[in-house]
């Protein structure tokens, strides 16, 4: 399969700067509608698929984003490498608002959104998730950032809360004591679904504030004020990635994540299952 880059933009990241748009397309998925139409375009002659996670105009909060439809749509459009952008709060003094963090671990503090797996209809799948991001793509992003004059951290633990409310001060201090580096509401779902979809996945966290542990009130104007700097830095990293795309292959197992993960016996794969999950399962039939 030809390597193709997909990008999901977060809060304040509703367009990809420099993208020469060829068209926008709705994509039908077995999980309903994605956050918006997928934008198909080119940068430096390379095709890119872009989707604003919260929809144009930021209509969808993190609890109502249809993560399954978003990732499925990317897979259906032939994306092989997915980079997502997410606004986060920082639990560390040294991880400053306006900087970027290249996430390499997650901690789940969500409740029961129920959209962190595609497989719910008579087929059981358990993906390996000890290393939740593609090591090759993650390393490349950090390497590119290192060549730019931007403030970034090459690793970070992302604690995913339910939202849409921000954390209380007690929660924020407890999460910080657990060793988490940043807090957000979206990235974990995308990481899990991207692994199920056998995509190479990496997440760029844009630090917008210090959450509430530091006795600063977190409010929307503060968050938005720090986004400009972080968005500009993330855009530079993405353009660097596009320049060097595709990364080397054969040094990660993302593309065969389902090979050892499907527990349901093949003779129990009904025609409905084979049809619904065709783009993921056909290589294993
Ligand atoms: Zn990979």
List the total number of helices: 7
**What are the low-pLDDT stretches, counting only 5+ consecutive residues below 50?**
none
- Can you summarize the main beta sheet? 11 strands, mixed
Strand content: 15-25%
Tally of domains: 1
The hetero molecules present are: zinc ion
As for the CATH topology, it is Rossmann fold
Order of helices and strands: EEEEHEEEHEEHEHEHHH
CATH level-four homologous superfamily name:
Nucleoside phosphorylase domain
Please state the second-level CATH architecture: 3-Layer(aba) Sandwich
Structural class: alpha/beta
The N- to C-terminal Cα distance equals: 18 Å
Helix proportion? 25-40%
**How would you describe the shape?**
globular
What is the radius of gyration computed over CA atoms, rounded to a whole number of angstroms?
18 Å
Mean pLDDT across the residues is 94
CATH class: Alpha Beta
Tally of extended strands? 11
